[in-house]
Write the structure tokens for this entry.
Amino acid sequence: MAVSGGATTAYVCQVQGYELTAQPTTRLRTECATVDHALIELAKGERCVVAGSDMAALRMRLQMAAGVQ
């Protein structure tokens, strides 16, 4: 899918051990989780899609909350 219209660079995220894995993808911005919602899903061991523009904030919040790298 080309990045245009409502599409954005995004990442499928999951925490394994104490490490965040992020697989690049392209999704509609409306399909991406907010940072707050992503933290809840990741804490349950689930995968979630996060917009590329939110990745820095997600990494910072994970590191502060649980020491996730």
Observations:
- DSSP finds two helices and three strands in the chain.
- The helical segments are 35-43, 55-66.
- The mean pLDDT is 90.
